[in-house]
Amino acid sequence: MSGPLSVMRNSAPSLPSVPEGWYAGGLARDLRPGEVRTRSMFGRDVVLFRAESGAVGAVDSVCPHLGAHLGRGGKVCGERLRCPFHGFEFDRSGACLRTAYGAAPPRRARASVFPAVERNGFLLVWSGARPPSWEVPELEPDGYSAPAVRTFRLRGHPQETTENSVDVGHFSVVHGFTEVEVQAPLVTEGPRLTAAYSMRHGLGFRTHFAIDAWGLGYSFVDVRALGLRTRHWVLATPIGGGEIELSLGVSVPTVGLRTRAGRALARTLAGPLRRVILEAFVRDTRADFPIWDGKQYVASPALAKGDGPIGRYRAWAAQFVESSAAAVAS
Q1: Which phi-psi region, left, alpha or beta, contains residue 109 (left: φ > 0; alpha: ψ -120 to 50)?
Q2: pLDDT for 56-114, tens place per residue?
Q3: In terms of DSSP H, where are the helices of 111-259?
Q4: What is the per-residue DSSP string for 87-113?
Q5: Residue 329: predicted pLDDT
Q6: Separation CA 178–CA 200 (nearest Å)
Q7: What span, in angstroms and rounded, lies between the C-alpha atoms of 101 and 158?
Q8: What average pLDDT does the structure give for the chain?
């Protein structure tokens, strides 16, 4: 994803390093047909490629033949990824379909794959011992700009960053919001968590947040303030060594005015407006960075009235970390 990377330090959280779920592997528009990109994810290099048809594949970087890095010199050949070492070609299922010298592909020459999809302008990659049992829903794309993103590298864990969405107490202490009100209580259903709040910003206006999280790596926030409705994303991807890549995204309306000239104006202003709102979003979220930097995971916190539904959040989050821990144990 675009944007500079900032490195923060923190003690490693005492949670499974990669909970099961979908995680951001970049902006979809940054991976064009025929391109190959390597992403640091899940404690390894994951190679993303887009076939000539436009379909996206994600494989472990290690070629199962003789260990070459598939992202360093690997090329897309039609619908397959070609290894730079011996020309073995793998499809998106990991099957080796041909070699460069005509020999039948060995049966064991099968690349390790990660399910990958495009959702709402992002490439999402699944991590888990089990196949995906749920998907992040597609938003209605009409009327909104493509997301703009800033990405930061820091020490932390997806459960800790997503927990901020229900940690009502920190809204005022860390971010300076006042008159915090719960508009819709926390509701969980399978991999989905929703909640809604309103609060007064330090500049005096009231802001409404509707949170829709799917797993621990993908949080979408519908924001309404000053008569404007914008889309925000908080995407935490574990990269290994107790670090995450935190991507903050913003999309703004491009329609809404009744006249053709008004709609053209909205599209023209979308870029600058998106940049301004993204920078404000980044500034607010940066206030959390030093907290995450020094934070230790407390398995049994001494919760107080006013903290928000942290206990219920953790009960929901356990499904992702427990499945990950079970996979490691097996």
Answers
A1: beta
A2: 999 999 999 999 999 999 999 999 999 999 999 999 999 999 999 888 999 999 999 99
A3: 158-163, 168-173
A4: --EE-TTSBEEE-TTSPPPPTT-B--B
A5: 47
A6: 5
A7: 45
A8: 91
| Residue 223, CA distances (Å) to 137, 228, 231, 306 in order | 18, 8, 6, 23
- For 11, 129, 149, the CA distances from 42, given in Å and listed in that order, are 18, 12, 21
Integer-rounded Cα radius of gyration of the chain: 21
Residue 315, burial from CB neighbour count under 10 angstroms (0-12, 13-18, 19+)? exposed
Q: How far is CA 317 from CA 23, 117, 118, 320, in A?
A: 15, 22, 24, 6
Query: For residue range 3-58, what is the model confidence (pLDDT) as tens digits?
Result: 444 444 444 447 888 999 999 999 999 999 999 999 999 999 999 999 999 999 99
Q: Please identify which residue in the block is written with the tokens 């070629």.
A: 63
DSSP 42-56: TTEEEEEEE-TTS-E
Exposure string of 156-171, with b = 16+ CB inside 10 Å and e = fewer, is: bbbbbbbbbbbbbebb
Tally the residues of the chain: 330
Q: Which helix (H) or strand (E) holds 313?
A: helix 310-329
Straight-line distance from the first to the last Cα atom of the chain, in angstroms, rounded to the nearest whole number: 34
Instruction: Indicate whether 283 pLDDT > 90.
Output: yes
What pLDDT, on a 0 to 100 scale, did the predictor assign at position 50?
98
The per-residue DSSP string of 250-283 comes to EE-BS---SSHHHHHHHHHHHHHHHHHHHHHHHH
Q: How many beta carbons lie within 10 A of that of residue 200, not counting itself?
A: 16
Return the SS3 of 68: coil
Q: Compute the distance between CA of residue 3 and CA of residue 214 in angstroms, rounded to an integer.
A: 24
Model confidence band, residue 256 (pLDDT cutoffs 50, 70, 90): low
Can you read off the two tokens belonging to residue 59?
């494989």
For residue 295, give Cα distances in angstroms to 13, 73, 291, 307, 318: 8, 40, 6, 16, 19
Q: Residue 110: beta bridge partners?
A: 95
What's the mean pLDDT in 177-192?
Answer: 97
Q: Count Cα atoms within 13 angstroms, Cβ side, for 18.
A: 22
Two tokens at 11?
């003690």
Q: What is the pLDDT of residue 216?
A: 98
